[in-house]
Amino acid sequence: MLFLPALLTTTAFVPSIFAAPSRTETAKRATCTVDSAEVAADLSGCSSVELTSFTVPNDTTITMSFAEGATVTMTGEVTFASTVASGPLLTFQGTNVQFNGNGMMFNGNGADYWDGLGTNGGKPKPHPFIAIEASGTFENFVAYNTPAQAIRVQPAADIGPLIIDGVYVNNAAGDADELGHNTDGFDVRGTDITIQNSIVENQDDCIAINDGSNILFQNNVCSGGHGMSIGSIATGDFVTGVVFSHNTVSNSMYGTRVKAQSAATTGAVSNVTWTGNTISGATKYGVLITQSYPDDDGTPGVDTPFSDVNFVGDPTSVTVVEDAHRVTVDCGNCAGTWDFSGLTVGGGLAGTIVSGDATVRQMTVDVQVRHTQSDMHAQIQGGSF
Ligand SMILES: *[C@@H]1O[C@H](CO)[C@@H](O)[C@H](O)[C@H]1NC(C)=O
Ligand SMILES: *[C@@H]1O[C@H](CO)[C@@H](O)[C@H](O)[C@H]1NC(C)=O
């Protein structure tokens, strides 16, 4: 009995020594509500973040640097006023961030800027709109009416994988009078990146992969733009280990491209796989693999070798409109055996296959949508598709 008070004291004392969080831990446990650009600028102490509805004023950009492992949710729309700031207007940083947009939008007010000239002239357009420099998962948000390029995906080195899931880049309004331009969906540089279950409605590349490795683009829908691209590869850009799986591309100028700038002096593309994609009604080229960029099919450069380019597994089906080309390969420096057995093409015109040292193993030409039997015969004889 004499011990009881001591025991009680000890018991009561234990939690205050051993369970009391340090200052840092206390801070990290905080749930922070972001309701202004100012609050958004200091989130390092927040393990949980709620983004409510607010407007980002003119001449202001936001960098949200999240604590490691932070959980972020959106409960309102974040609107960017017309701004003279340069992009990115919104940057996400952090390691293993779990970001769920709950279907809410970041509104870029693109129509205030769109003049048909994109980033080539006219009114200055902040770009990209959003930069994701974090690792973790970013899901279920909308990038709406972006002034030019929508989302730059460029995680910092060595911070782990990044998954982008269920994101909707909605620049469909930019189709009106062809005012939206250079509104790329995702511009990617980095390693261990997955983009899936997302929708891009825009007027330029759905995705453009410019540098990096182990990049998976799957179950996405691309509409209105320039399809799924690697490049354009510029000097010093190296891309390897890309898979395009089960995506749908419609109403687009190109279905899918690998493009290197003819003037690039170093760089390479290797190990690219397409499987189970559906590309329909491309208006210029179904598949274009070229080292002549910015020309589609011109005088290719020789300093950015392409190798191991394959359409395999589940068939990738490609149709093009009348007067568009199904498949063109325009190589100055290509090598290896390219397996196109998982590629089925139809409609339009044959492209030309100039594959240099690479051997292109056959694809299937769907006679149902071809013009005439003799046309087919002539093209297969001529080595084009
Ligand atoms: C934004 O701010 C700049 C000055 O920083 C000003 O020139 C411009 O008119 C402002 N834009 C709007 C839409 O208010
Ligand atoms: C090709 O890329 C895939 C996907 O990133 C990867 O799993 C595979 O190991 C790569 N193959 C080679 C030979 O590098």
TrEMBL record:
<dbReference type="InterPro" id="IPR050434">
    <property type="entry name" value="Glycosyl_hydrlase_28"/>
</dbReference>
<protein>
    <recommendedName>
        <fullName>endo-polygalacturonase</fullName>
        <ecNumber>3.2.1.15</ecNumber>
    </recommendedName>
</protein>
<feature type="signal peptide">
    <location>
        <begin position="1"/>
        <end position="19"/>
    </location>
</feature>
<dbReference type="InterPro" id="IPR011050">
    <property type="entry name" value="Pectin_lyase_fold/virulence"/>
</dbReference>
<dbReference type="InterPro" id="IPR006626">
    <property type="entry name" value="PbH1"/>
</dbReference>
<feature type="active site">
    <location>
        <position position="226"/>
    </location>
</feature>
<keyword id="KW-0378">Hydrolase</keyword>
<comment type="similarity">
    <text>Belongs to the glycosyl hydrolase 28 family.</text>
</comment>
<keyword id="KW-1015">Disulfide bond</keyword>
<keyword id="KW-0326">Glycosidase</keyword>
<dbReference type="InterPro" id="IPR012334">
    <property type="entry name" value="Pectin_lyas_fold"/>
</dbReference>
<keyword id="KW-0677">Repeat</keyword>
<keyword id="KW-0732">Signal</keyword>
<dbReference type="InterPro" id="IPR000743">
    <property type="entry name" value="Glyco_hydro_28"/>
</dbReference>
<dbReference type="Pfam" id="PF00295">
    <property type="entry name" value="Glyco_hydro_28"/>
</dbReference>
<keyword id="KW-0961">Cell wall biogenesis/degradation</keyword>
